[in-house]
């Protein structure tokens, strides 16, 4: 039974160094390595979820736009020029409700969920 020797981290670094910088990093010549081919949804941090005008902002997701834009749209409750929004109540109780809001502007999308105490 033959065993394959373990290639340690130092040896792997040595192999990459010997291959040159082209093997260690994507080439500047290939635009596909620098720009994503798909615009996947990005989850954005909302901190403690306070300060947006809701009791608790629980999630914020953006597609084809920045988290800063998403926070602005959520903070203004979707009342931003050029954005069109629709909301759906997810759960309701006598003291609070959960709601998901989806706003679009062309191909850009901002979606957030929040809890509002009544």
Task: Supply database-style keywords.
single chain; 118 residues; alpha+beta; 5-stranded antiparallel beta sheet; 5 strands; 24% helix
What overall form do the CA principal axes indicate?
Answer: globular
Strand content: 25-35%
Radius of gyration, CA atoms, in whole angstroms = 23 Å
What structural class do you assign from the helix and strand content?
A: alpha+beta
Largest sheet: 5 strands, antiparallel
Strand order of the largest sheet: 1-2-5-4-3
Helix content: 10-25%
Mean pLDDT: 79
| Number of H- or I-type helical stretches | 4
Low-confidence stretches: 4-19, 30-37
Oligomeric state: single chain
| Distance linking N and C termini | 71 Å
- Report the order of strands and helices: HHHEEHEEE
Number of strands: 5
Explain what the structure shows.
The chain has 118 residues and is an alpha+beta fold. Helices cover 24% and strands 34% of the residues. The chain has a five-stranded antiparallel β-sheet with strand order 1-2-5-4-3, with helices on one face. Mean pLDDT is 79; it is low at 4-19 and 30-37.
């Amino acid at each position: 039974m033959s065993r394959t020797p373990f290639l340690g981290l130092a040896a792997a670094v040595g192999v990459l160094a010997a291959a040159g910088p082209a093997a260690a990093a994507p080439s500047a010549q290939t635009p596909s390595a620098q720009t994503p081919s798909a615009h996947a949804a990005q989850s954005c941090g909302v901190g403690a979820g306070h300060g947006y005008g809701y009791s608790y902002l629980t999630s914020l997701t953006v597609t084809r736009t920045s988290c800063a834009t998403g926070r602005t749209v959520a903070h203004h409750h979707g009342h931003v020029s050029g954005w069109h929004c629709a909301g759906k109540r997810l759960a309701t109780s006598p003291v609070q409700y959960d709601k998901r809001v989806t706003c679009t502007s062309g191909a850009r999308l901002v979606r957030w969920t929040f809890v509002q105490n009544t």
